[in-house]
Design goal:
five-stranded antiparallel β-sheet, alpha+beta, binds biotin, 275 residues, globular
Length: 275
């Protein structure tokens, strides 16, 4: 449910001064055939995930993008909140993939985020398993995938991507030690529109090649900063320690522990032990 208190009406043409995002600025000559054919921009919203879910349940076209200038209740992985004041990127994309493609959505979104940041800046982002995008060891982008699967059929999937563009992490004590932004890292003002447009084009390119999930898996695996490192993993109430040995095709992490055993971890948070 989206709180109507926070939900301002989507605009049509309005150029937002705050962060130059609007439906038109994103879609104009975008050149995609699926992703971003329809972009619904809200100046302020609780969370793009909730609106994307609602639109998907109403049968929105595949590739529809819900984007917010600002989120008041941004949602992170593992029931965390995601900070998204104005001047940053918060969007969700509605997809209807086959069930066998589901594990690749996280890989695809991480790669697309990395490629779009590289296209617009000189920065060198890295992927921390499973899908945190880091610059200089601090998080600049988070990805959240949700969906509904019934009897081996994907009813819908929503891919949420948050990129810190102008966030001044130092102003937010709750994230200042671990977060950064494109502006802070590049020392200049990065355009949200440029990043979003590259992101959508890249997601489309990868999504249309999903049948070749093998190459997406390999590209994602090869960009992971985590592999071959000694790590701590928080997974549910467990805290494990070991060597991040490999990832399998479903995206799970294989952790080699001190007793020689190999544990397969589907979801968790990784911290590098030796920085
Ligand atoms: C994470 O915890 O790393 C995932 C963060 C995902 C944040 C994005 S911002 C756009 C979309 N809407 C949300 O409420 N969350 C995702």
């Amino acid at each position: 449910m989206v709180s109507s208190e926070y939900e301002m009406k989507p605009e049509d043409n309005l150029e937002m001064l705050e962060n130059d995002l609007s439906s038109v600025s994103i879609t104009d000559n975008l050149g995609t055939s699926l992703i971003g054919r329809k972009v619904i921009y809200y100046p302020r919203l609780a969370s793009t995930m909730a609106v994307a879910r609602r639109e998907a349940q109403r049968g929105a076209a595949e590739g529809t993008v819900i984007i917010a200038g600002e989120q008041t209740a941004g949602k992170g992985r593992m029931r965390r909140t995601w900070l998204s004041p104005g001047g940053n990127i918060a969007l969700s994309i509605i997809l209807y993939p086959g069930v066998s493609s589901l594990p690749y959505l996280i890989m695809l979104a991480s790669l697309a985020a990395v490629h779009s940041i590289e296209a617009v800046t000189d920065l060198k982002p890295q992927i921390k398993w499973p899908n945190d995008i880091l610059i200089n060891e601090k998080k600049v982008c988070g990805i959240l995938t949700e969906g509904l699967v019934r009897k081996d059929r994907v009813i819908y999937a929503t891919v949420g991507i948050g990129i810190n563009v102008s966030l001044r992490a130092a102003d937010f004590p709750e994230v200042s030690a671990m977060a950064t932004s494109l502006n802070d890292e590049s020392g200049r003002s990065v355009s949200c529109v440029d990043v979003v447009r590259h992101l959508l084009v890249e997601i489309e390119r990868l999504y249309l090649n999903l049948a070749d999930g093998e190459s997406i898996y390999e590209a994602w695996r090869d960009r992971l900063v985590t592999l071959g490192k000694r790590v701590y993993v928080e997974s549910g109430s467990n805290r494990l320690e070991g060597m991040a040995e490999s990832v399998d095709r479903s995206g799970a992490l294989q952790l080699r522990q001190a007793d020689g055993s190999l544990t397969r971890i589907i979801a968790g948070d990784v911290t590098l032990r030796d920085k």
